[in-house]
Design brief:
With about 160 residues, the chain is an alpha+beta fold. It has six helices and five strands, in the order ββαβββααααα. It has two domains: about 80 residues, Beta-grasp domain (Ubiquitin-like (UB roll)); about 80 residues, DNA polymerase, domain 1. Helix 3 crosses helix 6 and helix 4 crosses helix 6.
Length: about 160
């Protein structure tokens, strides 16, 4: 066991864990941040997606020792009031069915929109392709990413006035 200091959702935390423990289990079992889900354990489904310095990362295969001084953002830290444009669009379009994949989907979508604020249909398909939805709500997910882009654009326009 090692004492490891992390920056999670803009807060410094210390955990006593084996350095090879996947970040996912540190988040869920040691920090009670259970929004990030375990899906496959081999970085193939996207349910465990968090941001590492703003980049989407699969936390189920990332050893906590590899995090270093990087900032980790989980679904709980995306927006304290769940008012991120992606979260608003998800709610507005009633995207989730079972909801299991949603945290990973939302974190991936938010990262996509941060890099590409006005993605095309193909950009959305490519950007979201690594996240699996067992319920098959891909059409609603796609529409929500598009809607989140519109919400963010309108918000940015009103801030400029």
């Amino acid at each position: 066991m090692e004492s490891i200091e992390l920056l999670i959702n803009r807060k410094k935390v210390k955990v006593e864990v084996d350095s090879n423990t996947p970040l996912l289990w540190v988040l869920r079992d040691h920090l009670s941040l259970v929004g990030t889900k375990y899906g496959c354990g081999i970085a193939q489904c996207g349910a465990c997606t968090v941001w590492l310095d703003g980049e989407p990362m699969r936390s189920c295969v990332l050893p906590v020792s590899a995090v270093g001084k990087s900032a980790v953002t989980t679904i709980e830290g995306l927006n304290e009031k769940a008012e991120h444009p992606v979260q608003v669009a998800w709610d507005e379009l009633d995207v989730p069915q079972c909801g299991y994949c949603q945290a990973g989907q939302i974190m991936t979508a938010a990262a996509l929109l941060k890099k590409n604020p006005k993605p095309s249909h193909d950009d959305i398909v490519a950007g979201m392709s690594g996240n699996i939805c067992r319920c098959g709500t891909y059409h609603r997910i796609h529409n929500a990413v598009k809607r989140a882009s519109e919400i963010a654009s309108a918000s940015n326009s009103s801030k400029k006035k």
